[in-house]
What we know:
The complex is a heterodimer of chains A (360) and B (305).
Chain A: H1 2-22, E1 30-35, H2 45-60, E2 64-69, H3 76-87, E3 92-95, H4 101-110, E4 115-119, E5 128-133, H5 135-149, E6 154-159, H6 164-180, E7 185-190, H7 197-209, E8 214-218, H8 223-231, E9 234-239, E10 250-256, H9 259-271, E11 278-281, E12 288-291, H10 299-314, E13 324-325, E14 331-333, H11 340-344, E15 353-354
Parallel strand pairs in A: 1-2, 1-3, 3-4, 4-5, 5-11, 6-7, 6-8, 7-15, 8-9, 9-10
Antiparallel strand pairs in A: 10-12, 13-14
Helix pairs in contact in A: 2-9, 3-4, 5-6, 5-10, 7-8
Chain B: H1 4-30, H2 38-56, H3 59-83, H4 88-107, H5 131-135, H6 140-158, H7 160-170, H8 172-177, H9 182-208, H10 220-230, H11 235-258, H12 264-282, H13 286-292
Helix pairs in contact in B: 1-6, 1-9, 1-10, 1-11, 2-3, 2-4, 2-9, 2-10, 3-4, 3-9, 6-7, 6-11, 10-11, 11-12
Amino acid sequence: MKGTMLRKTLYALTAASAVALASPAAAEPLKVGFVYVSPIGEAGWTWQQDIGRREMEAALGDKVKTQYVEDVPEGADAERVIRDLAQQGNQLIFTTSFGYMNPTIKVAKQFPDVKFVHSTGYKTAPNVATTNARFYEARYVAGMLAGKMTQTKVVGYVGAYPIPEVLQGINAFTRGLRSIQPDAQVRVIMVNSWFDPGKERDAALALLDQGADIVTHHTDSTATVQAAEERGKYAIAYHSDMSKFGPKAQLGAVTHHWGPYFTKEVQSVLDGTWKSNQVWGGFKEGMVALEGFGPAVDDELKTFLKQQEDAIAAGTLNPFAAPIKDNEGKVRLADGALDDKGLNAMDYYVEGVVGKLGKN
Amino acid sequence: MDALAPLIAASMNAGTPLMLAALGLLINEKAGVINLGSEGMMLVAAALGFAVTVHSGSPATGFLAGAVAGALLAGVFAWLTVWLGANQVACGLALSLFGVGASAYIGIPYVGATIQASSWGIPGLEHIPFFGPALFQHHPMVYGALLLCAALGYFLYRTRAGLVLRAVGESPESAHALGYKVRRIRLAALLFGGACCGLAGAFMSLVYTPMWVEGMVAGRGWIALALTPFATWRPARVLVGAYLFGGITILTFHMQALGVPIASQLLSMLPYLATILVLVLISRNINWIRINMPASLGKNFNPNS
């Protein structure tokens, strides 16, 4: 039995390699690999990445063949998985989490002909491009939405860690909120975990207990939205549309979209024009959005928010236009607008945020 | 005062899964067996309990399924360690790793499923100002854990069976010489411990969050394991430790939201630090530790050798 299986596999392999040798490379679909940090699930970062993968596949049809590995821990395992994908003949590999940065660079050196795109990192190579989304643009508009809806003028924010990516979101949200309600405040709880539904829920409930009537989050589970739904309050979701988890609670969701970007990258590999590049895309590139509006948001408000999005896309509205004052009264930017370097080094809360960051 | 009632309520809720699991592990360890598989058992029970509740619509059935799942896994552990004499630490770690994977697999169809969250209250007490919302509007399992704590305190130190269990943990040879079935008693202790971890896991997915996502127990199994020795294997101290840990976690959240000028990184250390400090202080007497620590903890016993 075992022998037959082995023989069959061997035959199949020989046949396959014969076909591969015989047919010209052009007829073969381009193999594209994806590495995901968590299971795809039903919402969240990886879910959005996988939507992007499927959109890209739909757009390019049989010119591509995709493959993904989910739930790959950021560490030694990641390097093995990325190398496996390269060895299996994938020509372009998307590594979709910050912690894959060093493994990606390492494997890229060993496979100079394979192209890599790493998400949210900063190291590049001739065959490694990077990508990220300007989540803070959508956060700013979400803040405006909260400003239009809040009665108590207190909004709760469940954060993961006080790192620049999270602080950008909190600060943009607060500035958006206060552009509508100048005396509103944002209360922040850092749960020191990207993913701990129990803690996220407790933090959201603590914020609601302290008078917040809207909560939002920069963590990976749906717990915050569910907590708001249970208490009959509002929530603004992150990563994915979570209206399924909070049909009444969800006012909107700050989401990110990778389909068009993935398609563009794959197309350029097909055309042979691919070059290492750094993309940090926002509303203009269609990489972030505020969507999934709940029943409490009327058409007039939706139109207003759309106008703000368009203004940000056009560059006439900047979430971090001067003056920027931190919540201790210090002026952080006197004129102009914060540049990418300033954004990536953000280590303060803006005026209107209740909370304190550790000094470094 | 208005802020205090929800704080107390949330603390009890957050402490309950820790207490349930730690009480189960305490019984294991009092019988001389250390099962490091608590995280895995909690995860499997959380996934299975949630799945059963989604299908049956009955959280009580979900809790039962969680307890049975925990006990079954502990049964496998007992077979490997108590009968086959395998290393307890290695088997426990393997059980935890297995639980992480198995629960993820069981749970795949249930990610994103929702169950009906119901409100509870003790008639006559739930509407008392302050005390009602703080103490008397909890899920029955919160009170179940408190009862369990009292019952185990009574069982261990006031009953003959409790004495036998402790004897097995102190000196299995003596217990064996007196005619007690050491292996069966350890099996029973492990099954009970597994069932408690199962209840704790089911509490996580059915009451605390309530939802299923992979890895949602998020280390609470390990915290429960640490709680047991710090509480010097006394049920009442497990209660103090679990509520303290839950309470300070919630307290740091409230402090952050109020804008207390302490860095969040420091605050997130506080539950661990304070729990360890308090438990070390109340059990700083070295003789106490010596008296309460099962002398044969972690050592396998073979009646035939």
